[in-house]
Amino acid sequence: MKTIAWDVDDVLNNLMQSWFEWFKNRKKLNLDFQDITENPPYKILNISITEYIQSLDEFRLSNLYQEMKPAEEVLEWFKNYGKYFRHIALTATPLIAAPTTAQWVFKNFGRWIRTFHFVPSRRENINVPDYDIDKSDFLKWFGKVDILVDDNEKNINNAKKWGISVILFPAQWNSSKLSKEEALKLINRMME
Ligand SMILES: [Mg+2]
Question: What is the pTM of this model?
Answer without folding.
Answer: 0.97
